[in-house]
Amino acid sequence: MASVTLKNIKKNYTKDVTVIKGVDLDIQDGEFVVFVGPSGCGKSTMLRMIAGLEDITDGELFIGDTLANDVHASKRGIAMVFQSYALYPHMTVAQNMGFALKLAGTPKAEIDERVNKAADILQITHLLERKPKALSGGQRQRVAIGRAIVREPKVFLFDEPLSNLDASLRLNMRVELSKLHQDLKTTMIYVTHDQVEAMTLADRIVVFNAGVIQQVGTPLEMYENPSNLFVAGFLGSPKMNLLEAQLVGVEQGAAVMRLPKGITVRSAVDASRGKVGDKVTLGIRPEHIQLADPQDANAIPARVDLIEHLGDIVLAYIEIPGINEIICLKLPGHMTGLKYGDSVRIAFPEKNVLLFDAEGLAFKRSA
Amino acid sequence: MSASHSAEKVLSSSAKDSAASKKRSRNMANSRKAQRALALAGQYAGLIAFAIFTCFPFVWALAVGLSTDPSNTWLFPRSFWPTEPGLMWFERVFTEMPFLKYLKNSTVMSFWTIVSVVVISVLAAYPLARLKFPGRNLIFVAIIATLMLPSEVNIIPNFITLKHLGLLDSYWGAIIPNFAGAFGIFLMKQAFEQIPQDLIDAARVDGATELQILWRVMVPVSAPSIAALSIFTLVNAWNDYLWPSIVITTRDKLPLAVGVFNDLTGPFAVSTSLVMAAIVLTVLPVLIFFAFTQRYFISGLDGAVK
Ligand SMILES: Nc1ncnc2c1ncn2[C@@H]1O[C@H](COP(=O)(O)OP(=O)(O)O)[C@@H](O)[C@H]1O
Ligand SMILES: [Mg+2]
């Protein structure tokens, strides 16, 4: 087991295109860290540099206390699980899992023992003599994970390991990966573009965009207090509602914004670094918007555009006259009375309204 | 009220539409079926014609070799069916010439040719397919360009080189010039380029050196290409006539192709039937080899990724 430390890591594939633009990150021993970000933002590149499959253009990578920049992939004490599984098609499952040990000259008896132990953990003992082509996608994924476990690495690296599986299998494997981490307590770095996987698996999430870390934190911290608009929009499903607004009042521990048509909204943030008249973006999560009493004069009038019944919850998409953005509300599953065209009144609770400045940076919550 | 009315109208008219389109699609399906049958028949006719075209020399040789009475040899199509069938000519192949000696020579020479061609092609193709270095494309183009040269161009320089190496009139002299071939390098390069990068990376993380990656992952995964290259090389080596007949002068070292030609044709030839029987016996080992390699022709990459 080991920590992983990145110091100002940079990566250029060609001279003028910088894919990773200076990443600093401390990953604790035994931590489950998820790199998440849109496709093409450099997550795989980051992981492959840690694995030793890609040269590090600039910066320092420490695995444990060792500077690992120039250490060969096989000597870093890492094991990697690939999105495509990358099983050796000409070997049986057992040979696939034992290949690294065999190359390292481990005695046959010990290889068998470790392979059997890993197969037991993953419940693939009955598959050990099969070739990969006789396995289903989920089974192949287990073998790929088994191949990593057998090596007893200091750090596990996963590159979108679940994205080739169907939805239900993905859920199962997600739970099993969590369990695996609890059992092994090994440092794990996991790459995904799926924010649900990130939220459910991670001890800490690292949100990437365009080769730059946007924010690092625990899933809930990130969900509640995104540091900028990108993170706010990326985490959460359905997305956070983001509305253009103008700052009209800065008070002690609160800000007042005006939406078009003279609607005013209050937010419990410390907006002292902003000034009246600034363009800002207001953010509120779908589950925080409240349906208000139709007689409530302070609530905002709106009209229902679309209703989606998901069983446990109802998603309502509504339109406020004069505002371009469609607003999403997450309501309890029993609210089945709403339908297209209904007039409603909604309220934005002050403590749940987030505020971002013109550069997209969040104002601190005052509470 | 009016809204639901118009909705009904839309519904009924769309139902009519769908009935008409079903009919249309049925007609289309019929004509499509006929087209497919026609295309299939055409394909099979072509394949059968090609099969006859390629098989007939062998069938002819076999039928003539099996005829103890050679009087029908030149009568078409009667010659395709043995007259008074018997193995007499096949037995005489072994008494009229040192067939087994030639067979052994051919086997040894072909075996080492195949091994060397595969090893050299694999080693040359790996860097061309998988490593980045300046001049890579130029080297590849130069290798491919040698395919343009007629093989006769090589005869004199190779002869002089082998003379200086003292390899004239030896097995090695007869086969060494065939070891490095552009075709094999090209074939293996194509095969290696198809291997997913993840598979190679997985082996690298598992601790394999470049050579281990090559021999323990890339080569087994490329089995179909290697089988194809082996067969191709075997046929070429087995049938090689001109070069061995130039280099080898001792009768005991001759391969089959040269031996059969020297002993059974020309002014002292015994009979066409004997030549035909010898040819059939010469081809047989190649067919057997093909039967054994055939199972490697299925894709070696199934199950690797996704
Ligand atoms: N081998 C390569 N050569 C050049 N550019 C590459 C290479 N691999 C990835 N890239 C580029 O680097 C960027 C990040 O890629 P990647 O790390 O695969 O993204 P992600 O895994 O986040 O989807 C992309 O713009 C991609 O086109
Ligand atoms: Mg990727």
What does this structure look like?
The complex is a heterodimer of chains A (367) and B (306). Chain A has 367 residues and is an alpha+beta fold. Chain A has 2 domains: 4-233, 3-Layer(aba) Sandwich (Rossmann fold); 238-356, Nucleic acid-binding proteins (OB fold (Dihydrolipoamide Acetyltransferase, E2P)), CATH 2.40.50.140. Chain A has helices spanning 43-51, 93-103, 108-122, 137-150, 167-184, 195-201, 219-224, 229-234, and strands at residues 4-14, 17-27, 32-36, 58-63, 66-67, 78-81, 155-159, 187-192, 204-209, 212-217, 241-251, 254-259, 263-267, 279-284, 290-291, 300-309, 313-319, 327-332, 343-347, 354-356. In chain A, the strands form 4 sheets. In chain A, strands 6-7-8-3-9-10 form a 6-stranded mixed β-sheet, sandwiched between helices. In chain A, strands 13-12-11-14-20 form a 5-stranded antiparallel β-sheet. In chain A, strand 16 and strand 17 (313-319) form a beta hairpin. The longest helix of chain A has 18 residues, at 167-184. The mean pLDDT of chain A is 92. Chain B is mostly helical. Chain B has helices at 2-66, 88-96, 99-130, 136-145, 155-165, 171-175, 182-193, 197-205, 210-221, 223-239, 242-247, 256-264, 272-293. Chain B is 72% helix and 0% strand. Chain B folds into 2 domains: 2-80; 96-305, MetI-like fold, CATH 1.10.3720. In chain B, 29% of the residues are buried. Chain B contains 13 helices and no strands. Chain B starts with a helix and ends in a 13-residue tail after the last helix. In chain B, helix 3 (99-130) crosses helix 10, helix 3 runs antiparallel to helix 12 and helix 8 crosses helix 9 (210-221). Chain A binds chain B through residues 48, 51-53, 73-75, 78-80, 82-90, 99-100, 103-104, 131-135, 137, 140, 147, 151, 164, and chain B through 196, 198-199, 201-208, 212, 217, 220-221, 223, 300-306. The complex binds adenosine-5'-diphosphate and magnesium ion (MG). Adenosine-5'-diphosphate binds next to helix 1 of chain A.
